[in-house]
Amino acid sequence: MTGRHLYKMINIGCHLSSSGGFTSMFNRAIEIGANTFQYFTRNPRGGVAKEINKEDIDNFLKLSFQNNFSKIIAHAPYTLNLCSSKEYIRNFSKNIFSDDLLRVESVPDSLYNFHPGSHTGQGAEVGISQIAKALNEVIKPNQTTTVLLETMAGKGSEIGGNFKELKQIIDNVDVKDKIGICFDTCHVFDAGYDIVNDLDGVLKEFDSIIGIDMIKAVHLNDSKNICGSKKDRHEKIGQGNIGIDVISSIINHPYLKNLPFILETPQEDLQGYADEISLIKSKIK
Questions:
Q1: Residue 48: what pLDDT?
Q2: Is residue 184 annotated as a catalytic residue, yes or no?
Q3: Which of 264, 197, 262, 166 is nearest to 224 (CA)?
Q4: Catalytic (active site) residue 234
Q5: Among residues 15, 42, 90, 187, which one is catalytic?
Q6: Is residue 258 exposed (0-12), middle (13-18) or buried (19+ Cβ within 10 Å)?
Q7: Which of the 8 DSSP states describes residue 32?
């Protein structure tokens, strides 16, 4: 198979700095052999978002159409916590979330990924209720953006470390056609789902609880930890406890192969991502 043919068979990219705007991110993605990317909507530790540049976005939309680019993923800042025990943090998070959704609409049909949050001692049931309530206040029926709950490793008081918690949130969201799941391979492994020895079984369990069609994107990461560690430490592809053989099974799995895959591995520069993308493309069957 030619490189061009492989390129069309997988939607893969990595997390890019939004510095320079969408056209710059597009150019960097193309440079490393990607056809999608993920970016933070603002500083990952919080802060004011940059002003939207319509000319830059229009140029990006034109380039992405011409190059058969896949959907891109906007990632919420890490400081966002819709289920904090502190009301002012929940309100702050909801305001950031609402503002982000308005901004992300400038690139139609985007995906907006966020960590469900940590209940900070309130208990999972309270946290789940707070998350669903906030989502019902910010998600609008006419938006084109799909909001993604990310599967989490389950460390501390994190919500989303098991599929049932994510299902409970979804069940209480009113506009269900605007919500989905981002399946993080490191997180589910660290949470205790053994995708190394039973990938099919894990995906069947997900399907029975949530529905496999709810997975809209995959964070493709290896793990520094053993299954069930609940530590959430990403590793480069093929250098962790998940391994390249399982990564190959994931990208070729009939349930997942047509989704956008995003690398969040610990790289020092773009060349590291370019090498990983090349490796992953070589595993396409």
A1: 79
A2: yes
A3: 264
A4: yes
A5: 187
A6: exposed
A7: T
Q: Please state the three-class secondary structure of 132-158 as a single string.
A: HHHHHHHCCCCCCCEEEEECCCCCCCE
Q: What does the alpha-carbon distance between residue 131 and residue 171 come to, in Å, rounded to a whole number?
A: 12
Q: Tell me, what's the pLDDT at 2? A: 33
Place of tokens 């989905």: 180
Q: Identify whether 42 is a catalytic site residue.
A: no
Active site residue 5: no
| Spatial CB neighbours of 140, under 8 Å, sequence gap ≥ 6 | 101, 175, 178
Catalytic residue at 115?
yes
Structure tokens given for 13: 């990219």
Give yes or no for a contact between 187 and 149, defined as CB atoms under 8 angstroms apart: no
- pLDDT of 136: 98
Within a 10 A sphere around the Cβ of 220, how many other Cβ atoms?
A: 28
Q: Are 238 and 224 in contact (CB under 8 A)?
A: no
What gap in Å lies between CA 219 and CA 170, rounded to an integer?
20
* pLDDT tens digits for range 147-193: 999 999 999 999 999 999 999 999 999 999 999 999 999 999 999 99
At how many degrees (to 10) do helices 124-138 and 163-171 cross?
40
Gap between the Cα atoms of 200 and 255, Å rounded: 10
Is the Cα torsion angle 255, 273, 41, 85 positive or negative in sign? Answer: positive
Query: Active site residue: 100, 158, 165, 184, which one?
Result: 184
Could you tell me where the beta strands, DSSP code E, fall in the chain?
Answer: 11-15, 36-40, 73-75, 111-114, 146-150, 179-184, 215-220, 222-223, 234-235, 260-263
For all residues of the chain together, what is the average pLDDT? Answer: 95
Q: Which residues have a Cβ under 8 Å from the Cβ of 56 and sit 6 or more positions away?
A: 21, 22, 23
Do residues 219 and 187 make contact, with C-beta atoms less than 8 angstroms apart? Answer: yes
The label of the residue with tokens 């809209």 reads 216
